[in-house]
UniProtKB/TrEMBL annotation, chains A, B:
The keyword DNA damage does not apply. Keywords: Aminotransferase, Pyridoxal phosphate, Transferase. One of its GO terms (molecular function) is glycine:2-oxoglutarate aminotransferase activity. The lineage of its organism: Eukaryota, Viridiplantae, Streptophyta, Embryophyta, Tracheophyta. This is Aminotransferase class I/classII large domain-containing protein. Homodimer. CDD domains: AAT_like. Pathway: Photosynthesis; C4 acid pathway; Amino-acid degradation; L-alanine degradation via transaminase pathway; pyruvate from L-alanine: step 1/1.
Length: 481, 481
């Protein structure tokens, strides 16, 4: 019998090539252990509500009313919902043509795209055109669509930071393109260096790759650094000189835990650079409702903004978006609410402010506690989490641990993370899932466990780690370099 | 200056090749006219709520409560919500790990997948395994994922009915595969003939295409026919003999407007056929919350069930689903509600029954009124809409109309539909967007306008059509063949 079309040997080879460690071996093992009754702390994925973060009340009230519009005609609606939530629900329903049950325009509701444009205008002090903003089912779907517009085959390359969030490597593999890595410098707080960018592009071109785009993740995932304005200027000049589209993954723009480098968007820096760059560099910027202090991952809402993209291409992107009809409408409304939250003086403002600041201030403290915790462990060094939701400590594995992993047929940091999981229930992602320099090992953990639980989690981690190091260091002692 | 990577000439050629007429030229022109203040009747897309269909109350109450779980602790919740909706909301929240704001497992919530499996078991009288059911953001996304698993390049072919819903042709083009058309027979009520299937496969193989899968749409879109059990048996035997995966697009399974051929799933027919077919034929079946009497298009909920797919491939499909993290969670709950609606005796049952039957009975009447209306028009013949949501009349264009279209550089049915739109505001999709035999022309319209509006719409259509025919028929008269 010949193999069937959906037998493993027959399927699309690019599907088999794609790797996505965030839900890979470690996650699958954690899910098994959970089924067996073990308590698992899922810090593998930035999923705040799964770790107990409460949703912000106002947006949930508004979307609940949009789902149940008949409540708006009920004289008792005011018993359960504040007046400004009721008014907002009416506003968003007026932007739809048939409520949450009707497909919207494939680019998203025009009224919400207008609110996004106004938000970008306020944020950057440069105007933004709603016609160049497309709403998506989470930022990931937007990234995938843009990469599929750029990549036409194996010869097309995308510059991606290493370490990187594996959405990029996985999607490039699925699309049959080439990942062109540029290394972030751990000793310079995961800084981005244009010399390294030039080296990477030259080497790829020498190998026959047509390098077409560059990805930045700012704040960084998994690395947590915030790019400086000077760094962004360098990147944009580099893209201009090398004729690259810049993909700006800015989904963590609300998650900033230091004051030296506030978030600044690639779009603003580009506009500040003025002509010719501001009119020439092609830029796509991504945002989401999944991160920030919203953390509304399960809603699947996002947008991308296109800068300096010709109209014919914008139309092609619209056409492809149309094939799946429309992004889900309730998440579009979450996006509207995120970019246009309650204002001082609104009935719900005080509650909204209290809730959102509570989350943000706690994340800031958690970033500090976790970084300090990792740095107190034997053979572990960790840059401070300046932004985003992750710590990415380097684990300096003793040679005997590396040898043991080799014997077990595992990548060394996978072995470490598996043992950590079995011993403590802490579910992390090995650094190898994000890429790292040869012979160097990391893990990624979110900073999302409840603040009051973190000291115990870090104690448990330290106990495991220090025993692990003890076990694998040889008699002579393995000195920390 | 060389072209930039997102200039039209640089982008992925497959993106440019893909066509999706449902939101193509006609839709764009209709949107323009609407902006100019013209009243447009959007019958181009099966989007019931956009044409005034009211959502079913019970599922909206449940999902509203899931969005606002704090209401469940409010002593006044019973003022606005019935007790069974409250209980259901608690049930679904208990299936999540963090409510609607948390990513679910990438396959969807295990508890909802179990409800889907139970529904399939009740429907088909054969068991279904929740581990082989994956929830998706609408059925379209599921179809796209499965096609991307099958298609590895230009040599890989998919048998697709013509006329077909262009999700298939567009996705195959995007993925760089080959569409292998088989023609449905209009004079046999859009019947599917295995002789034609064999002809099509032979010809494709002769041309070097590796035909891997076959699509059926049952009930048909745009053609509205319901496949008989005998027809489905033939198709499954054909797939077995020719080593093809069958993709069963069954999103209209609730939309049946005659009693001779009730819906029967490909899965049930396959199981009825017994061994070896029931153990060998690879089948993927798709369903959605967008159609039926739910019409919850904007929520973006769907599932696919895999039959006879090896575990390694199921794992690969899981891995790829993981890259975009999870389908939106509120639509997963809609799916749970759709497959597990209120039962007799439940507080909300009477209302649910009244609402759903009201919609279904009205659609049945509308199918009849529209078919009869089309058949009363000059040079128009239309098969009865047995199921789904569309009428697909053949428009017998006079030679002079075809000539006029050629002069205008338009496909003849595009010209006809544009003129219809300008004259009446009725926004349809030309038959050429779905594929049709050479020299034969159609249009697709939904049967979704409000029942009370349909007579006027059909009068307006008839007036336009008959004048159009009058205008383009030559002096000698153009006889209806």
């Amino acid at each position: 019998m010949p193999p069937k079309p959906l037998d493993y040997e027959s399927i699309n080879k690019n599907v088999k090539k794609a790797q996505y460690a965030v839900r890979g071996e470690l996650y699958l093992r954690a899910s098994e252990l959970q089924k067996e009754g073990k308590k698992i702390i899922f810090t593998n994925v930035g999923n705040p509500h799964a770790l107990g973060q409460k949703p912000l009340s106002f947006p949930r009230q508004v979307v609940a009313l949009c789902q149940a519009p008949f409540l708006l005609d009920d004289p008792n609606v005011g018993v359960l919902f504040p007046a400004d939530a009721i008014a907002r629900a009416k506003h968003y329903l007026s932007l739809t043509s048939g409520g949450l049950g009707a497909y919207s325009d494939s680019r998203g509701l025009p009224g919400v795209r207008k609110e996004v444009a106004e938000f970008i205008h306020r944020r950057d002090a440069y105007p933004s055109d709603p016609e160049l903003i497309y709403l998506t089912d989470g930022a990931s779907k937007g990234v995938m669509q843009i990469l599929s517009t750029i990549i036409g085959g194996l010869g097309d390359g995308i510059l991606v930071p290493v370490p990187q969030y594996p959405l990029y490597s996985a999607t490039i593999a699925l699309l049959g393109g080439s990942l062109v890595p540029y290394y972030l410098e751990e000793t310079a707080n995961w800084g981005l260096d244009t010399t390294e960018l030039r080296r990477s592009v030259s080497q790829a071109r020498y190998n026959g790759i047509n390098v077409k785009a560059m990805v930045i993740i700012n704040p960084g995932n998994p690395t947590g650094q915030c790019l400086s304005e000077a760094n962004l200027r360098d990147v944009l000049r580099f893209c201009y000189e090398e004729n690259l589209v810049l993909l700006g993954d800015e989904v963590y723009q609300q998650n900033i835990y230091q004051d030296e480098r506030p978030f600044i968007s690639a779009k603003k820096v580009l506009m500040d650079l003025g002509s010719p760059l501001s009119k020439e560099v092609q830029l796509i910027s991504f945002h989401t409702v999944s991160k920030g202090y919203w953390g509304e991952c399960g809603q699947r809402g996002g947008y991308f903004e296109m800068t300096n993209i010709p109209a014919e291409t914008v139309d092609e992107i619209y056409k492809v978006a149309s094939i799946a009809l429309s992004p889900n409408v309730s998440a579009q409304i979450f996006m509207g609410l995120m970019v246009n939250p309650p204002k001082p003086g609104d009935i719900s403002y005080d509650q909204y402010f209290r809730e959102s600041q509570g989350i943000l201030q706690s994340l800031r403290r958690r970033a500090r506690i976790m970084t300090d915790g990792f740095n107190s462990c034997r053979n572990v060094v960790c840059n401070f989490t300046e932004g985003a939701m992750y710590s990415f400590p380097q684990i300096r594995l003793p040679p005997r641990a590396i040898e043991a992993a080799k014997q077990a047929g595992k990548v060394p940091d996978v072995l470490y993370c598996l043992k950590l999981l079995e011993a403590t229930g802490i579910s992390t992602v090995p650094g190898s899932g994000f890429g790292q320099k040869e012979g160097v090992f990391h893990l990624r953990t979110t900073i999302l466990p409840a603040e009051e639980d973190i000291p115990a989690i870090m104690d448990s981690f330290k106990k495991f780690n220090d025993e692990f190091m003890e076990q694998y260091e040889d008699q002579r002692g393995y000195s920390r370099i």
